[in-house]
Design a protein that fits this description.
This protein has about 280 residues and is mainly alpha-helical. The chain contains twelve helices and three strands; from the N terminus they run αααβααββααααααα. Strand 2 and strand 3 form a beta hairpin. The N terminus is likely disordered.
């Protein structure tokens, strides 16, 4: 009988009755008011959860796949922007076929991020896939650019005129740095930078409408309108400076809430092939 009682005392108690230590707070102390959580050492072996299963990360763990994935997307994004700049600058010639390995050598990367970036440009209509060869830069026609300008005008002009009546002057003043950025890129004759700052200014204007679908559709049309024609000369610095000046004049009219001048300027801004 005494031996049986001794075995009962020595037998391990179930986890429910195990003592629960107090959780130390941020100051390292324990005591009343501190939450009490079970110490994993008190858990039976089969109830302990591996750190990887809990999704926890310790400094001793080797890096996972996430950093490599982020880096790959970063490279692809950089290549995509470089290819877009080459399109605007006329370095990628309409009608010519370019292979991903050759472009990869040019940029000092493998063919994979180039191919992924080219696939994105294909969805945007800038290039077309040529099986077993690469990607052909799309030939643009003057009619296509005129159609893009017309659609942009149908979308943007009514929105800007409506915003001119509702947005306070302070809302327009906040866009001045974007207009300054277009002017600076134009003064340098940097066509790729101007294309980006130009679209950024138009996006910011349309974003005041609160319609994100409108912003995305208009930005896609704007990007397509920036690709040059095969037979067209490279955009001159003077043309960029004139276009940037229209941004600044329009912004000043919007700040002054001069609706007559706004209407004249915004319609004039869309009369050219590049706006």
């Amino acid at each position: 009988m005494e031996q049986a009682r001794a075995r009962d005392v020595a037998a391990p108690q179930p986890y429910a009755s195990a003592p629960v230590p107090e959780q130390a707070g941020p100051d390292g102390r324990t005591g009343p008011g501190r939450p009490r959580v079970p110490d994993e050492a008190c858990l039976p072996e089969q109830a302990r959860m591996p750190e990887q299963a809990r999704g926890e990360h310790t400094h001793s763990e080797p890096p996972g796949l996430a950093p490599r994935t982020v880096q790959r997307h970063s490279v692809r994004g950089q290549i995509l922007e470089a290819l877009r700049a080459a399109l605007v600058d006329g370095e990628l010639i309409p009608g010519e076929v370019y292979s991903a390995p050759v472009l990869g050598e040019r940029f000092g990367v493998s063919a994979t991020p180039v191919r992924e970036a080219m696939q994105q440009l294909a969805t945007e209509g800038a290039v077309e896939v040529i099986p077993n060869r690469g990607f052909r830069v799309t030939r643009r026609s003057p009619r296509e650019l005129a159609e893009l300008a017309e659609v942009r005008a149908l979308i943007e002009i009514p929105v800007v005129l409506r915003l001119a009546r509702t947005v306070p002057a302070a809302g327009w003043t906040a866009l001045r740095p974007l207009a300054d950025a277009t002017a600076a890129a134009a003064a340098r004759g940097d066509r790729a930078a101007y294309a980006e700052t130009d679209r950024a200014f138009h996006r910011a204007v349309l974003a005041l409408s609160g319609n994100q679908q409108l912003v995305m559709v208009a930005d896609d049309l704007h990007r397509r309108s920036q690709w040059p024609l095969a037979s067209a000369p490279v955009t001159r610095r003077a043309d960029l400076v004139a276009d940037a000046a229209e941004h600044m004049a329009l912004l000043e009219a919007l700040v002054a809430q001069d609706l007559r001048v706004v209407q004249s300027l915004v319609r004039e801004h869309f009369t050219g092939a590049e706006a």
